[in-house]
Amino acid sequence: MGARSKDELDRILQNVLIFARQYSAESPLRASSALEEALTNAIHSTKCVDPTARLSLDDLYLGELLKLVDSIFVNVENSALLRSKLNLFIFNLAFYNYSIRSFIAIDVGMCNSAFLCLKLSVQEELGPQNLIDILRLLQVLTYEKRLPLGTWTNDCITFLLNEICKPEEPEWMSNCCAILCNLVSRSKTVCTRIKKSGLFKQFQKQMLELLAHDSRTSR
Length: 219
Description:
By secondary structure, the chain is mainly α. Helices cover 75% and strands 0% of the residues. The chain has 12 helices and no strands.
């Protein structure tokens, strides 16, 4: 039963690969609906640990799929719906499969793509849930210990500090704090960047208030 389930998931993901190839090669308007439908099926099929955790990069199609998904993910001309589906699909894979998470965070460098998607979400005012979904992906990817920090990192730190220091706490505060903690644990440079920020004192104050709040900490 388990083997058949894994085989079925392989077929579903190979179907995503077929439509992703078409989307990249043809007019996006013609191919987007088919890719979105394939992604909807893939999101549903990967939202649990089994069989997602048993996917293997030894299956050559998977590496090609992940790289192709990243190249589509960074295309600013994509619709918000397609970006959202790509984000949810990638999150499921990264959350339930360690080897895939490591591959897309380190080898593919998908944090850059995810942060670009985050900026587009803010610019297009796509709403809190879309923003939270993207932050959840960044939270999972930045947890990777060997994560390479790139040009996206400084902008990401600035965004996180601005969100954390808002007068009214946003719904995605916990995600922002988690991502920042992940980045700090990866590099001393991140700590230096935070300390040099004009928001550092406000950030310190906010963190102390959060830690002191009775409803957030155990006594």
